[in-house]
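Structure ticket #2291
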Amino acid sequence: MTRPPSDALLASDRPDPLWSRVAGTIMAAVEAGRYPLGTRLPPERELCEQLEVSRVTLRRALAHLVEAGALTSHQGRGWFVSRPQRADWPSSLESFSETAERLGLAASSTVVEAAREAASLDDAEALGIAPGTAVYRIRRIRHLDGVPTALDTALVPEAAAPGLLEHDFTSESLYRAMQARGTTVHRAESVLESRPADAAASEALQLSRGAPMLVIRQLVHDERGRPVLLSLVEYAGDRYRLRTTFTKGG
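Resolution: structure written out below.
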């Protein structure tokens, strides 16, 4: 960040508080591309020297930017540039890729695992199939505009989408790939909960161990009511927010 002129930043005749001017200066640097999404800001001491302000003022500015969703704070690691949290709870069943498209964001994935395996007792019970039945396990790190946002694990019975692993899930939607293989998703039973990030999620999403996560478990059915997908999506709590509207009936 180029040091701003001290007389402009500290001018006493400006009506806005100093911390607000500091926050604006930092955001201007972010918007100018000096600090891309996901990168860490310089240490607080360096920022204080560059901006010629106290650490108290700087931290007030940084805290404001965290509240606005422009930055995230990780204890012991510093301040990181973040996209403001955004994601409306969809009114219809849609994939991560479709949600991103609706919000004008670019979705991409890093495939961690894509394998054919035998269904465990628990997975078989949830999917309504016999234990040992062939299933596809697809595990991906999901990105929004290049920022790692979620760890997505999906289990699909082979019979529901034969040859599913031939698709490229770094860019392709799982729902669309399943439709191409003869199965159209129709309804999902969803459970939302919060929990701290474990070692796998921390590494995949570059989070501190124990950071808050939003976890969504879904059992997805096709148009005939058959379970065709068991899904677990673990979202970084500081990078994703679900928002919905409730209307009182009756």
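Closing remark: The radius of gyration is 22 Å.
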